[in-house]
Specification:
Elements lengths: L7 E4 L8 E7 L3 H6 L2 E3 L10 E8 L5 E10 L10 E7 L2 H13 L3 E2 L4 H8 L5 H11 L4 H11 L2 H25 L9 H31 L1 E7 L5 H9 L17 E7 L2 E7 L9 H16 L2 E7 L6 H9 L5 E6 L9 H5 L5 E4 L8 H13 L13 H22 L4 H18 L6 H9 L6
Parallel strand pairs: 1-7, 8-10, 8-11, 11-12, 12-13
Antiparallel strand pairs: 1-2, 2-6, 3-4, 4-5, 5-6, 9-10
Helix pairs in contact: 4-5, 6-14, 7-13, 13-14
Bound molecules: guanosine-5'-diphosphate.
The site of guanosine-5'-diphosphate has 20 residues, from α8.
């Protein structure tokens, strides 16, 4: 039976050939159990807490498996808040696996996904929003997503939420006190002053809520479809952006049979690219499946990169598509600008009132303009490096709930309701905000969040 109190272990670094690999062990028995496979100048249990100790990991025959540095942490001064050991091994898949197997052979069990961070949370080492940002950090695909997670880890969101909560509870307590003891606490003129605070809370929460859409684009990437007639350069664009040959590029129309997915970073943002089979009518069944998928993908995408071969001319199909595209989610690329051009931006603008970029996958012309166009469409010109973006759906939902409750309070005041009427809405807002930092959080929610984590974190 697994228990929350078992001593657990997992690899804290990727299983790959690297300089070092770290195995993290946590739980009451971590030091004594790892001691069984450790040989150094003394036993691990005799070392001072927070020390790094040289030694060897040995197998059952006493043969050395790896030369290591072992850190010993004692509760509560560790990542999880429990006794912990970190074994710094030589990176290398074979060695790491062997040491990990030896660790498990002592009776330590493999950690579940997110279990280290769950323990850190349960032991009060980090609050929920900080713990969640560990997960975002682990899966951060771009520089901006990474920075945002760091900002959250440093407690930006919790501080903000805690401040609003403490102000809410202060006001609610005053109302309660005044209702209980009207002789000493006077509610005359309370509403006017209170409404100023209320509006400030609503503004701050709204700001966080508004950042969510952009936050998800930062974290998950912008789902991007590359579309256009056959041979306009869709596969070439995908290859150009991803920096390696993934799609087959040929001169024969219709060679990209299926959709290819790729994550590429473009400056500060990540694009999840889907190359399409070229939207056109076709009798070829294999290809027609690709075309249907492409049409589906396009309607679900955040961004549509529509390519036109500027050395040829627009046909009726292009014109129809251009008229249909939503300028808020489309960038038209006039590709092959290195050749003699037949189509220019003015021609496109007769049909499409959005962003047009002159591009060449051969020379790289237009790459910076494409980045600018995407930043304009999704981030009002560019990512605000100092802004904090909400990236977690649960946080977003809780902020929306809090906002709803505060708006009810606002309505009660406008309707001239008495103070005792709206305190329950104030408490609701307080509670919803509490979920963000893990106060009054239900058990299954905790489990859900931590099971989303990566091993060793
Ligand atoms: P797709 O059918 O839209 O995926 O088009 P491909 O990427 O397979 O490209 C079709 C042809 O156009 C290939 O011969 C490419 O080398 C060529 N091509 C693509 N982009 C450019 C470009 O920017 N300039 C020039 N001169 N040729 C290009």
């Amino acid at each position: 039976m697994k228990s929350e109190y078992d001593t657990i272990a997992a690899l804290a670094t990727p299983l790959s050939t690297a300089g070092i690999g770290i195995i993290r062990v946590s739980g009451d028995e971590s030091v004594s159990l790892v001691d069984k496979i450790y040989k150094g100048r003394a036993t691990l249990t005799s070392y001072e807490p927070n020390t790094i100790n040289y030694g060897h990991i040995v197998d059952t025959n006493g043969d050395t498996v790896d030369e290591v540095l072992v850190s010993v942490f004692r509760a509560p001064h560790s990542y999880t808040g429990e006794d912990s050991v970190e074994i710094n091994c030589h990176g290398g898949i074979y060695v790491l696996k062997k040491v990990l197997d030896l660790v498990y052979s002592t009776g330590i069990r493999p950690a579940e996904k997110g279990e280290f961070s769950k323990r850190a949370f349960l032991n009060g080492r980090m609050d929920l929003s900080e713990a969640e940002s560990v997960m975002d950090l682990v899966s951060a695909g771009s520089q901006s997503s990474y920075k945002n997670s760091i900002r959250q880890l440093s407690g930006f969101l919790s501080k903000k939420v805690k401040k609003i909560r403490s102000e809410i509870i202060h006001e609610a307590a005053f109302v309660e006190a005044a209702l209980d003891d009207p002789e000493h606490y006077d509610l005359d003129g309370f509403d006017e002053k209170f409404e100023i605070n209320l509006n400030l809370w609503i503004d701050q929460i709204k700001n966080l809520i508004d950042s969510y859409h952009q936050g998800s684009l930062i974290r998950d990437g912008i789902n991007t479809v590359i579309s256009g007639r056959p041979n306009v350069g869709k596969s070439s664009l995908l290859n150009f952006l991803s920096g390696h040959e993934k799609a087959i590029v040929t001169d024969i129309p219709g060679t990209t049979r299926d959709m290819i997915e790729e994550r590429v970073s473009l400056g500060d943002v990540v694009l999840n690219l889907v190359d399409t089979a070229g939207i056109r009518k076709t009798d070829d069944t294999v290809e027609s499946i690709g075309v249907q998928k492409a049409i589906d993908a396009q309607s679900e995408a955040d961004l549509n990169l529509y390519l036109i071969d500027s050395s040829s001319s627009l046909n009726e199909e292009d014109k129809k598509f251009l008229k249909d595209f939503d300028p808020a989610s489309t960038v038209v690329l006039l590709n092959k600008s290195d050749l003699d051009t037949n189509v220019d931006s003015d021609t496109i603008h007769q049909f499409f009132n959005g962003k047009v970029v002159i591009f060449s996958t051969k020379t790289g012309e237009g790459y910076d303009d494409l980045k600018l166009a995407i930043n304009d469409l999704f981030f009002n010109g560019g990512l605000d490096k100092d802004r904090f973006y909400i990236t977690n759906e649960d946080n977003y939902n809780n902020l929306c709930e809090a906002m709803k409750s505060l708006n009810l309070v606002k309505r009660s005041i406008a309707d001239g309701m008495s103070e005792d009427f709206f305190t329950s809405d104030l408490y609701d807002a307080y509670r919803s905000l509490g979920y963000i930092i893990g106060e009054e959080v239900e058990e299954d929610l905790v489990n859900k969040i931590f099971s989303d984590f990566c091993m060793g974190k």
